[in-house]
Amino acid sequence: MPSIPRHLTSVHVIDCIGNNKQINNTALAEKMNLSKANITKISTRLREEGFIKRSQLNDNKKEIYFSLTAKGRQIFELHERLHKLEEERFMQLLEPFAEAELHVILRFLQNVSSHWAKKEAE
Known about the structure:
By secondary structure, the protein is α+β, with helices and mostly antiparallel strands. Helix content is about 65%, strand content about 15%.
């Protein structure tokens, strides 16, 4: 079992890199809704800990791209399995409800989500 990054955001950066081939600092920051400075800090730590590596394309030596190391791939796959497990548990939780009840639950969750999105925008 590999060591695990100490911060959940670091795990999500690993996930984002694992899901996107040849992703650079700017694209990573946009996809994660974080500042480029934050991504630089996190990616430097992840590189030092051996989870990610940096590379350049042959025709563009200026641009730096991130990819996962074998150690990073293990974390990526573990994170994916954990999400799948949680999704299965959530679906089991919803199994006993009738379709009409599920529509009410969905409407409630959409309202909660909308409420928190408005709070974040303030």
